[in-house]
């Protein structure tokens, strides 16, 4: 059963035309709907992408640095962004492939309908023509038959009348014969025509029409095949459960799993660590008892006739309160916080809080009871002689060393911090240090009274420039300022902020504004405040208050007077923050010869003045903008925490003046890349394995410190004695488990960088593992260019498509296998550096 046998009739023909019209209409509808879908998918993707941008703005919030929740949120935002991109890609595909296909099918469908209709019309015309021909012949036949009959009757009539002869009879006979011939001819033609027409009609009906319909059926089915492909493509490009989506979903899940409440505040605590709160000292003001002729003594209860009753009553009162408090503590009746809306049960800690409060209250009462009891006991509760005093010293002071009379009022606890370690000293700011007197001209000078205690000697260390200035007041403060340990030179503001952690911490530094050098006092006070030291026309220095001939004296005044630097800021100087061990004087370093050129400036071989040690010094061009100088110092900040034979060592940074410099151990063989190329003909396989091992050891150490190098390559490794390899160039490094790049991917070493870092800006130590694979390749190709002959983008595309570099000549199989593992597309499948180290170490021993 098909078109050819079942759809021959006229009504079938009309139905087939109507069906085609409906299909064409359906194609139009589909095209319209899909166009709307593409548009709305794109709008959706755009909205999602921009909301993820919004969502990621939190990154800039300094206070959340190191938060795992933030990291997880950023990952989720990235993943949602990726989802939006995929949705957009699918919308693009629907437009480019599906809508296009529908358009083509639509016009073909219309063409096919037209051809079908034309053929049907022609066929109907043919049938009509045959019928017309027969009808025409039949009419002619009837006419000739009438004529014949007429002529015959005329002839018969004459024949009888004329007696069978005569001219008229001949005439009639002739006409009769003619009509008879014509009739016979027409008869024959009619017979022939009927045969031919019957044959033709049979052909058209039984061959032509079925074949036309058969062809139509094939065309229709072919269309349906195309249509099915279109529907299949719609399904394909609307599938949000593909591997790519699932991968994104897995990544989001992983981001959530990485949130660990126990670790969330680890970095925060590290960054904001402060000394434990120092006690608030409540000290008896001795001025109060000046006028009492010795009857009242500081820190002693006066038990005499005037006070004994009051003391006893007080004792009873206190004992009652104490008892009540103790009972309360034993039988607590805590306010219920169960009806709170909070879903976090830990917030309901009223029991503990109440318990603590009661315990404090109990202690306070107990202490007072004890003191009064001790005083009364001592007198046996008898009538007291007038003016009898009991000392409270031992009850109210923790440290016996400061409980001696006369020292209590003067001595405050004071700390100086250096290299994050604390040393505690006592200070006596107004008695032991040089007195400060106002002179008539309004400036303030130090008196010649020298330091008197051990504590003051320590202070002298911190302020050693001052004593010098006291004897040589002509000296311009800045020359000696360099000597001051709290003077940090051109240390950038970020570093300064990092050093000042506790309220009252301060230091002095130099900055340049509009080409003018300014001295700045930076203080940790309600955030961080930076005060520019003002210069008077006489060349003296001041903030808001009095002027001083040197900056040191100005700072000392601010510190010792305890007055706010400006009344608006209220900032008070408490603890001078001394230079870190790393901060060297620029003059401590003698540059000898240029040995290299870095991104920020030249690299020199140099000598330390003090110990004559040879060092390498990276300089930062004076002309670079501050932002670049900060980036330059980033390397120093990272390196100073590390100590490993395969990591280049930091000796110090010089920020006292320009050019700022980073001083490092001198690694005499220079860059590994140059070394490999220079010594290509002599390097042995064993040496190559050892280089890989050294680099793996260094990287294993960095991974354990959560440091991501981000630029591991032979050009950034150095070669030392006995060709030891050291990892260097930490300019791009980050101390994070994972680092997301958000400020574009400028200057990325594409051929060394892992795909997830290139595609999503997501860096982990496993990206360093990828780069380590390239480094191994460089080592075994003796300084070859990776992906030689390919541009960066070609290499990137090929890697995404699965291409990996072949092994360089003479690479041991195990090493090449390791390279391939380092280049696994999925970072989780790559080995960590401790595994890499084990493999390389085992191999290098096998090759010994
Ligand atoms: P940057 O990080 O600014 O690009 P590099 O660390 O790459 O600078 O140093 C540039 C060049 O200086 C290196 O290729 C190397 O030759 C030389 N160099 C850098 N540091 C040292 C060092 N500690 N010992 C010896 N040479 C060094």
Protein architecture, described:
- Residues 324-344 are annotated as: Disordered.
- This is Tyrosine-protein kinase.
- The chain is α+β, with helices and mostly antiparallel strands.
- The chain has four domains: 3-57 and 67-271, Arfaptin homology (AH) domain/BAR domain (Substrate Binding Domain Of Dnak, Chain:A, Domain 2), CATH 1.20.1270; 299-427, no CATH class; 436-579, SH2 domain (SHC Adaptor Protein, 2-Layer Sandwich), CATH 3.30.505; 672-848, Transferase(Phosphotransferase), domain 1 (Orthogonal Bundle), CATH 1.10.510.
- The chain is built from 22 helices and 22 strands.
- Strand 15 (602-608) and strand 16 form a beta hairpin.
- Bound molecules: adenosine-5'-diphosphate.
- Adenosine-5'-diphosphate binds next to strand 14, strand 16 and strand 18.
- Adenosine-5'-diphosphate is lined by residues 595-600, 603, 616, 618, 648, 664-667, 670-671, 716, 718, 728-729, 731.
CATH top level of the largest domain is Mainly Alpha
- CATH topology of the largest domain, anyone? Substrate Binding Domain Of Dnak, Chain:A, Domain 2
Helical stretch tally: 22
Taking strands numbered 1, 2, ... along the chain, how are they ordered across the largest sheet?
Answer: 13-17-18-16-15-14
Domain Protein kinase: 589-848
InterPro entries: AH/BAR_dom_sf (IPR027267), F_BAR_dom (IPR031160), FCH_dom (IPR001060), Fes/Fps/Fer_SH2 (IPR035849), Kinase-like_dom_sf (IPR011009), Non-receptor_tyrosine_kinases (IPR050198), Prot_kinase_dom (IPR000719), Protein_kinase_ATP_BS (IPR017441)
Family: Belongs to the protein kinase superfamily. Tyr protein kinase family. Fes/fps subfamily.
Region (Disordered): 324-344
């Amino acid at each position: 059963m098909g078109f050819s046998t079942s759809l021959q009739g006229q009504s079938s023909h009309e139905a087939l035309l109507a069906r085609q019209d409906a299909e064409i209409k359906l194609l139009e509808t589909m095209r319209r709907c899909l166009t709307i879908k593409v548009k709305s998918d794109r709008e959706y993707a755009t909205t999602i992408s921009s909301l993820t941008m919004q969502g990621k703005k939190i990154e800039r919030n300094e206070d959340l640095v190191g938060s795992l929740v933030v990291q997880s949120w950023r990952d989720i935002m990235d993943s949602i962004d990726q989802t939006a991109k995929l949705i957009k890609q699918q919308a693009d595909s629907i437009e480019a492939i599906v809508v296009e296909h529908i358009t083509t099918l639509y016009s073909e469908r219309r063409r096919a309908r037209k051809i079908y209709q034309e053929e049907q019309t022609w066929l109907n015309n043919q049938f009509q023509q045959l019928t017309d021909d027969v009808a025409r012949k039949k009419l002619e036949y009837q006419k000739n038959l009438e004529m014949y009959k007429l002529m015959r009757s005329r002839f018969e009539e004459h024949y009888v009348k004329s007696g069978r002869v005569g001219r008229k009879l001949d005439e009639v006979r002739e006409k009769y014969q003619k009509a008879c011939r014509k009739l016979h001819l027409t008869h024959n033609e009619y017979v022939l025509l009927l045969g031919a027409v019957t044959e033709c009609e049979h052909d058209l009906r039984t061959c032509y029409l079925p074949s036309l319909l058969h062809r139509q059926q094939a065309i229709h089915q072919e269309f349906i095949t195309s249509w099915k492909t279109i529907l299949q493509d719609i399904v394909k490009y609307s599938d949000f459960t593909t591997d790519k989506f699932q991968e994104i979903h897995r990544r989001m899940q992983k981001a959530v799993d990485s949130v660990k409440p126990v670790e969330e505040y680890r970095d925060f605590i590290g960054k904001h660590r402060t000394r434990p709160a120092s006690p608030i000292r409540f000290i008896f003001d001795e001025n109060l008892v000046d006028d009492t002729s010795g009857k009242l003594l500081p820190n002693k209860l006066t038990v005499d006739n005037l006070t004994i009753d009051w003391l006893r009553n007080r004792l009873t009162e206190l004992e009652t309160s104490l008892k009540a408090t103790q009972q309360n503590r034993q039988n607590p009746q805590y306010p219920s916080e169960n009806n709170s809306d909070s879903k976090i049960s830990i917030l309901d800690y009223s029991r503990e809080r109440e318990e603590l409060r009661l315990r404090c209250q109990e202690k306070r009462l107990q202490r007072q009871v004890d003191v009064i009891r001790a005083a009364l006991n001592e007198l046996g509760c008898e009538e007291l002689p007038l003016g009898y005093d009991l000392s409270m010293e031992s009850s109210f002071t923790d440290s016996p060393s400061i409980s001696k009379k006369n020292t209590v009022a003067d001595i405050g606890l004071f700390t100086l911090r250096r290299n994050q370690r604390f040393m505690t000293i006592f200070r006596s700011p107004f008695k032991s240090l040089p007195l400060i007197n106002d002179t008539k001209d309004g400036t303030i000078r130090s008196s010649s009274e020298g330091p008197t205690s051990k504590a003051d000697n320590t202070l002298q260390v911190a302020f050693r420039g001052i004593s010098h200035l006291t004897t040589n007041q002509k000296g311009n403060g800045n020359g000696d300022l360099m000597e001051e340990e709290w003077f940090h030179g051109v240390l950038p503001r970020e570093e300064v902020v990092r050093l000042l952690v506790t309220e009252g911490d301060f230091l002095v530094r130099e900055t340049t504004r509009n080409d003018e050098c300014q001295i700045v006092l930076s203080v940790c006070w309600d955030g961080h405040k930076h005060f520019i030291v003002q210069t008077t026309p006489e060349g003296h220095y001041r903030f808001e208050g009095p002027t001083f001939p040197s900056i040191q004296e100005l700072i000392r005044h601010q510190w010792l007077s305890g007055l706010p630097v400006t009344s608006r800021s209220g900032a008070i100087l408490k603890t001078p923050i001394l230079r870190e061990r790393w901060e060297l004087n620029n003059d401590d370093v003698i540059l000898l010869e240029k040995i290299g050129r870095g991104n920020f400036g030249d690299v020199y071989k140099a000598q330390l003045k003090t110990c004559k040690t040879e060092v390498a010094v990276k300089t930062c061009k004076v002309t670079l903008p501050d932002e670049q100088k900060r980036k330059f110092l980033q390397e120093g900040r990272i390196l100073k925490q590390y100590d490993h034979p395969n990591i280049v060592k930091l000796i110090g940074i010089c920020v006292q003046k320009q050019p700022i410099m980073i001083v490092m151990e001198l690694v005499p063989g220079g860059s590994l890349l140059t070394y490999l190329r220079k010594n290509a003909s002599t390097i042995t396989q064993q040496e190559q394995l050892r280089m890989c091992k050294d680099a793996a050891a260094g990287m294993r150490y960095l991974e354990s410190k959560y440091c991501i190098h981000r630029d591991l390559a032979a050009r950034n490794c150095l070669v030392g004695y006995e060709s030891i390899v050291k990892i260097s160039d930490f300019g791009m490094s980050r101390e994070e488990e994972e680092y997301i790049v958000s400020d574009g991917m400028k200057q990325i070493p594409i051929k060394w960088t892992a795909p997830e870092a290139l595609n999503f800006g997501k860096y982990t130590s496993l990206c360093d593992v990828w780069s380590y694979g390239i480094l191994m390749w460089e080592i075994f190709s003796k300084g070859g260019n990776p992906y030689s002959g390919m541009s960066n983008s070609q290499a990137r595309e090929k890697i995404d498509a699965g291409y990996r570099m072949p092994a360089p000549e003479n690479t041991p199989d195990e090493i090449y296998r390791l390279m391939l593992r380092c280049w696994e597309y999925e970072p989780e499948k790559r080995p960590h550096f401790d595994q890499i180290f084990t493999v390389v170490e085992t191999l290098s021993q096998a090759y010994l």
